[in-house]
Every structure is written in C-alpha cells, then in structure tokens.
Amino acid sequence: MTDLTRLTLTEARDGLKAKTFSATEITKAHIASVEKARALNAYVLETPEHALKQAAVSDAKLAKGEGGPLEGLPLGIKDLFATQGVRTTACSKILGNFVPAYESTVSSQLWRDGAVMLGKLNNDEFAMGSSNETSAFGPVVNPWRRKGSNVGAGATGAIEGAHLVPGGSSGGSASAVAADLCLAATATDTGGSIRQPAAFTGTVGIKPTYGRCSRWGIVAFASSLDQAGPIGKTVRDCAVMLRSMAGHDPKDTTSVDMAVPDYEKAAGRSVKGMKIGIPREYRLEGLNSEIDALWQKGIDWLKAAGAEIVEISLPHTKYALPAYYIVAPAEASSNLARYDGVRYGLREQGRDIVEMYEKTRSAGFGAEVKRRIMIGTYVLSAGYYDAYYLRAQKVRTLIKRDFDQAYAAGIDAVLTPATPSAAFGIGEKGSADPVEMYLNDIFTVTVNMAGLPGIAVPAGLDSQGLPLGLQLIGRPFDEETLFSLGQVIEDAAGRFPVSERWWS
Amino acid sequence: MSVDLATVKRVAHLARIAVPEADLPKLQGELNAILGFVEQLNEVDVAGVEPMTSVTPMAMKLRADIVNDGEIADTIVANAPASEDNYFMVPKVIE
C-alpha cells in the first residue's frame, strides 16, 4: 500500500470517501511516523489513543456515507489552543500541567467537522519567537537540511550536527506538516508566526483577516494582532482547513459575523485581470539576491496567468516592525499578568504574596518572554505611554492607511517575499541582540499591524537547497483571492516535499 | 531613550518578575537594544493621526444580560496550585 502519510489532506479526504483506506489506517500510519520522528521534537504531547478513538467514530460515519468535511483526517494542534482534558502549555513552564476544562472554538470546529487529533505541537513560548528556540520543551528541528550538511540521526536516534530551525512561533506545526507527521496543523500568527515557518519548511500557511477566526480558547499573546490559521502541504489543503477553522463566535467580540465562503472553490479560479501590487519599499537595500530573483519569478508567473502587475508604494513599511515591538509587548505584558501562581500553573513559594508572584513569574517565564513583558510594562508605564504606545498606535493607523489607499486604487493583492532569508541554523541568531531575530518578520509583520490576510506559498529552493516562500497580502476578508493566486504560484513552482526521512 | 539600572529594577518589580542583581546589566543591554530599535518611530509625522483602536471597524456587540454559565466552582479551581473548599489559597495578605 502507498504511504498514507505522503498524501495531501485533500487526497486523503478523497481516499477516505472512496473507501480506498480507513480513518483508522491513515491515523495509525501517522501515529507510527510521529513515533519515529521524536528527534525532531515537533510534538510536545502525543495523543494516539485519543486519535484512534476519534478515527473509529469517523470510520463508522464514513461507512454510512456520512461525515464532515474533515472526517477522519489526522491533524496536529499547536499547543496554544486549549484542548479539553488534554494538557495545554503554550510551551511555557508557567502553565506547567494545565489541563483546560474547555476547548478552543477553532479546534472544536475541527472536531465538529470530523478531524482527528494526533497531539499538541511545539511552539515558541507564548508564541514569542521566530525560530522555536524559546520553547520550554526545547527547539524543533527543521526536516530540511542544507546541501552537504552533516546533520543526521545518530546511533541513539538523537539529532547530530547543527540543525536548522523551522522558524516560529509555529515551528512544531510547520515541521510536523513538512515531515508528514500530520496532514495539516493549526497555527497562530501575531507577527509572522504562520507564514515565516511555512516559508522555512516548504509548506503553505495562511494568516486570515483579523476577526475571521475566533480567538476564544487560544492562549493570548497580543490580542489586537493574534489570529489563528492553518499550515498545510498545499494551497488547497489550507483552503479546506480554513473553512472549518473560520466563522463567527459570540464568545469573541472581535470575531466577525460574516459568512465563510467555500475557500476550496477559490483555489484554481482564474486570476485573469487581477491587479497585483509590488511594493517598492519591500526592495530592501542588501536584500538577498536569491530572494529578489524568486520575487521576480513570482511576478512572471502571475503575469503569465493573466494578472496585471503594478508598482505601488507603502511608505510606512519600515516602521511596522518597530511599532510592532511596542504594541505587541504592551499587549503581552497585560495579557500575561494573569500568570500569577494563584489560579493555575506553576507556583513558587514566597514570604508574602508579592514575593510569591515575583518568584513564580521569574521561574516560570523564559528569557524572551520576560524581556517582552518588561518592554511592555515600560512603554505602558506612567510618563512613557504617549511617547511609545500612543505613537506606535498612530503609526499603525498610517500603515493600515497605506494598504487602504493601494486597495482603493484597484489593487487586488500585494506580492512580496515571505522572509528575508531561508531557514537558519540553531543558535545562529539573536543571542547577542534580540533585534537580529526580530528582523525575520520584516515582510510579514505589516500584515498583522493592518489586520489583513496573508498567505505564504513555497516558490523555490535557494543555492543551499532550502525552500523559500512568497507572500501574498489580500484585502480584508478576501482570503479567496489569496487562495486563487497562491494556487497559481503552486502550479508554477511545484510542491516541495521533504524527500528523505533522514531522522527515522 | 535608554533605561538605567534603577529603571530596569523598577520595571521588573512593576512586572512582578524577580530578577537577580547579577542579571540586571545584561537585561538592561537587551532592553536598550530594543528601545534603540523602536526609536526610529520618532521620524514619523503623526500630527493629526488618530491612534488605531481596532483594525476592523466594527461596533461592539452586546449580549443579553443573563446568566449563561456558573455552578462550576470545582472545575474552576481544578488547576489551582493550592485550593481549599473551592477557594484559591494564597499567602497571608492581611496582618
């Protein structure tokens, strides 16, 4: 029989409907591949028994010709989504052994539609990071290796050599999808945490418009920027996933009461006559020439598909990242105030309640999270609020206005590179200066600041043999156009599956 | 703007994070690197610009003023590091 883990989500769905194999068979195949890939550290919790129970229910439904759009399809869930009765930690020591009594809205919709949960996926602690190196469970290994790299599985099965990071914060999700450890995964994106890891692993990731997916039950980082979305093997797979994940939820006041289109129909739709903006401010000085060449290829592919290419200007682009590093930490410092050692998670003893708080938070949070809480606390503190936070929110208005003006002028979507480089090595960035790591999100962060949808699609390999991605940015709530354009890129560039399972 | 050691200490206390004295200089350097990076926002002319309050213009939704949850005290304290009779236990706060 063919290796069921190599299938795409939509291929697997069609195979289950045609009864070529069962939900139990494809779930078992994935459980086996997850077990063999523990050295990648993509999963922080495996739930094989739970998965097999769900698969059995799916098989009963499928046998009767019933079942939802994701019936019997095994998925991985980022450990930021609360899963009822299943440990959820945000990959932080401070949540310890937190077992939610409730299910996040997004994941509950996946189960409603018949999906199977294989386990919880690694991420940067509280989603703060661009390399998955800040996780309390340790870093995730990218299944991609540089050409001629000595990275491999040693005699004990542990990874040997300086491996590459999968990006972050959804590094576990990206690595698991790329290594065929699930058919697709949930992820979240506050500054690029879906699109950057997707680009680093040759997978597809979409951050929908702010408000498209409910944030209820997702561990909060920066509430005005956080959005859930899928990482999948293909554009079409992401379209199917997003349709289930999206939708209005009365429990999240920022979730939008709008019908969710059948996104899969948009993948493959003609893009003839669409106007694609190429923002000149993204042509950074010193931009990697391979990235620049790939961007040009993307332009050529869309042109060949009948789209019209227009140079545009988004003048406040360069201020998006600095403004983000005020807004996001400010919101994080407020959101993370809830981790006080009283209601859940870790507690360290102290002489009085303040010392208990301080010791608990000192022991429970990692270095990057502490830094961001402190920056956030500082920029919100008396006397600095206007100079930092208020100014950043004004700049944010200007960033959004840039996009509004481009869209008002008839632009349907914007094409940019997804990341300034391919995946880098573990420990290579940010150890001396945290800003070096932050620069990874230079192309993705504007999208969060403006609340827009953005998709990253793999488009080629660099000279090291590593995948590179292109990003498409859409109008608010027009994810459909992104799926149509993304499909054009995927058709032209081909897919980029990891060929050798060197880790197992 | 950059922060001095006393400010780092004050902010750590405001954030309720214990920072060992020896770690303060390193943290000060990191915070100043970030503050140095965001300094470029001062170049932007923001006169007359409204600060963003919501990326998607939308009216705040209202819900009916009714009890829709409750009677689940056991569930609420289930994850608490210390609880007794459905109360969260904390170190003594009143002398």
From TrEMBL, chain A:
<dbReference type="GO" id="GO:0005524">
    <property type="term" value="F:ATP binding"/>
</dbReference>
<feature type="active site" description="Charge relay system">
    <location>
        <position position="78"/>
    </location>
</feature>
<comment type="subunit">
    <text>Heterotrimer of A, B and C subunits.</text>
</comment>
<feature type="active site" description="Acyl-ester intermediate">
    <location>
        <position position="193"/>
    </location>
</feature>
<comment type="similarity">
    <text>Belongs to the amidase family. GatA subfamily.</text>
</comment>
<dbReference type="GO" id="GO:0030956">
    <property type="term" value="C:glutamyl-tRNA(Gln) amidotransferase complex"/>
</dbReference>
<keyword id="KW-0808">Transferase</keyword>
<dbReference type="GO" id="GO:0050567">
    <property type="term" value="F:glutaminyl-tRNA synthase (glutamine-hydrolyzing) activity"/>
</dbReference>
<keyword id="KW-0436">Ligase</keyword>
<protein>
    <recommendedName>
        <fullName>Glutamyl-tRNA(Gln) amidotransferase subunit A</fullName>
        <ecNumber>6.3.5.7</ecNumber>
    </recommendedName>
</protein>
<keyword id="KW-0547">Nucleotide-binding</keyword>
<feature type="domain" description="Amidase">
    <location>
        <begin position="25"/>
        <end position="482"/>
    </location>
</feature>
<dbReference type="InterPro" id="IPR036928">
    <property type="entry name" value="AS_sf"/>
</dbReference>
<comment type="function">
    <text>Allows the formation of correctly charged Gln-tRNA(Gln) through the transamidation of misacylated Glu-tRNA(Gln) in organisms which lack glutaminyl-tRNA synthetase. The reaction takes place in the presence of glutamine and ATP through an activated gamma-phospho-Glu-tRNA(Gln).</text>
</comment>
<dbReference type="InterPro" id="IPR020556">
    <property type="entry name" value="Amidase_CS"/>
</dbReference>
<dbReference type="InterPro" id="IPR023631">
    <property type="entry name" value="Amidase_dom"/>
</dbReference>
<keyword id="KW-0067">ATP-binding</keyword>
<keyword id="KW-0648">Protein biosynthesis</keyword>
<dbReference type="InterPro" id="IPR000120">
    <property type="entry name" value="Amidase"/>
</dbReference>
<dbReference type="InterPro" id="IPR004412">
    <property type="entry name" value="GatA"/>
</dbReference>
<feature type="active site" description="Charge relay system">
    <location>
        <position position="169"/>
    </location>
</feature>
<dbReference type="Pfam" id="PF01425">
    <property type="entry name" value="Amidase"/>
</dbReference>
From TrEMBL, chain B:
<dbReference type="GO" id="GO:0050567">
    <property type="term" value="F:glutaminyl-tRNA synthase (glutamine-hydrolyzing) activity"/>
</dbReference>
<dbReference type="InterPro" id="IPR036113">
    <property type="entry name" value="Asp/Glu-ADT_sf_sub_c"/>
</dbReference>
<dbReference type="Pfam" id="PF02686">
    <property type="entry name" value="GatC"/>
</dbReference>
<keyword id="KW-0547">Nucleotide-binding</keyword>
<keyword id="KW-0067">ATP-binding</keyword>
<dbReference type="InterPro" id="IPR003837">
    <property type="entry name" value="GatC"/>
</dbReference>
<dbReference type="GO" id="GO:0005524">
    <property type="term" value="F:ATP binding"/>
</dbReference>
<comment type="similarity">
    <text>Belongs to the GatC family.</text>
</comment>
<comment type="function">
    <text>Allows the formation of correctly charged Asn-tRNA(Asn) or Gln-tRNA(Gln) through the transamidation of misacylated Asp-tRNA(Asn) or Glu-tRNA(Gln) in organisms which lack either or both of asparaginyl-tRNA or glutaminyl-tRNA synthetases. The reaction takes place in the presence of glutamine and ATP through an activated phospho-Asp-tRNA(Asn) or phospho-Glu-tRNA(Gln).</text>
</comment>
<dbReference type="GO" id="GO:0006450">
    <property type="term" value="P:regulation of translational fidelity"/>
</dbReference>
<keyword id="KW-0648">Protein biosynthesis</keyword>
<dbReference type="GO" id="GO:0016740">
    <property type="term" value="F:transferase activity"/>
</dbReference>
<protein>
    <recommendedName>
        <fullName>Aspartyl/glutamyl-tRNA(Asn/Gln) amidotransferase subunit C</fullName>
        <ecNumber>6.3.5.-</ecNumber>
    </recommendedName>
</protein>
<keyword id="KW-0436">Ligase</keyword>
<keyword id="KW-0808">Transferase</keyword>
<dbReference type="GO" id="GO:0070681">
    <property type="term" value="P:glutaminyl-tRNAGln biosynthesis via transamidation"/>
</dbReference>
<dbReference type="GO" id="GO:0006412">
    <property type="term" value="P:translation"/>
</dbReference>
<comment type="subunit">
    <text>Heterotrimer of A, B and C subunits.</text>
</comment>
<dbReference type="GO" id="GO:0050566">
    <property type="term" value="F:asparaginyl-tRNA synthase (glutamine-hydrolyzing) activity"/>
</dbReference>
